[in-house]
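Team,

Forwarding the record for the chain on the shared tracking sheet. I've put the sequence and predicted structure together so nobody has to dig through attachments.
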Amino acid sequence: MPEDRAPRDPQLPGREPTAASALDGFRLLPRRKLPVIPPKGEPWGGLLRPATLVWLAIGIVLVVAVVVGLTTSRSSAPTTLEGATAEVTGQADELTATLPEPPVAVQDDSAVEPCVDGGDRRQYALQRVLTLAPGFDAAAWAAELEDAYRAKDWNVVTDTAGDDGVTSIRLIGLNLVPLTARIAPTADGSTVTLSSISRCAAADGPADPA
């Protein structure tokens, strides 16, 4: 009598059925072949098309750039009123340092104000008047200031109003905190009025990152 043998898997001739092959008929999703590089001279298709790969690479680069940008901006932006104030005054001090000579007098009328959104946060409004000695060349300094800040990738808008010689220079850096310098001639020399306003921040909060 012939020996009893287990039925063979019809999909695998010559092989005994296994648990894996027995479940092939119950597969929920069809088998998908992996992308294969076409022979030389034949066009690429599917996911291996050059256009698809290029757009995929561009998408990855954009995602990485956005993540890095958000991480950098969140880590560097001040989160307290003290930090926001230091950011504004630092920009004003840096601009003052570009003057050819130190100012004769400095009048500071800065103050802390509520944010315009009506919340409980505050912002620092800077108003600083610098009195300069006679002989100050406002036009030359304004031109040097414009070139220096444009070289730092700041947005610079210069406006000369009327015949009174008043020149206004509006500067906005990458942190989007504006700084305006208004240069006005006087009988005894010139004045430079610096004005800026900080970002809104909590009066009490965690320490700002170093």
